[in-house]
Amino acid sequence: MSPQEMAWDGGASRALRLHFVLDALAGDPITPAEICAHCPEVLSVTGAAIALAIAGEELTAACLCGPGSDVLSEAAFTLGEGPTVEAARRGVVVLVPDVGRAVQRWPRYVHVARRFGIDAVFAFPLAIGETRIGALSLFRNRPGALAPADVSDAVLVAQVATHALLAWQADVAPMALSDELAELAGRHTHVHQATGMVAAQLGVPVQDALVRLRAEAWASRRRLAEVAADVVGRRMRFEP
Fold first, then answer.
1. Which of 54, 139, 180, 211 is the most buried (most CB within 10 A)?
2. Are the beta carbons of 75 and 113 closer than 8 angstroms?
3. Mean pLDDT over residues 117-137, rounded?
């Protein structure tokens, strides 16, 4: 079903869905922050977040809305697991109506979610064809599946968010980032720098170095960005 057809599908949020589509087709898409802000009022959720995987790098938050969204978005980035990560990496919709039942799949992520009162998470990839740039995640403080109409709406919102983000790149030279995306990517620059430093310190591949960084963050109950800043600032060194 095309975005235009979905916009005319029945439901209480039809007018807003049409608004999303018309904005995208007019070439003047609403911002990611505006999209996040609309999600709770039209999709029967309590929070929303848009995460980006710029140039195949680790996730970084583009916008957040609602209680718990900041904590879970940071948990996905720090731990490298959860519905948001899976949706962004695999390009598939990940629906988790009861977070407690996913403890074997994402034990650390579920621990954080339940601690902060998030009982359901629904993640939708931001993608055009095979090109994946992140995920739209929806959070709810009670367990239960999304209604079929809400799933359809969320797919449409993810499509519009994708076009809104790519619109920032419309007039940018190949292999370069727009000012807006560069600002978002810069939020986790220390993590990428620290990963390279830890890889050199331990003599391991970059992927293994990132695992060690995440393990340290989890064990010390700190954000990954904080641990990375200590490594880059040479206040912390990893030994083989």
1. 139
2. yes
3. 91
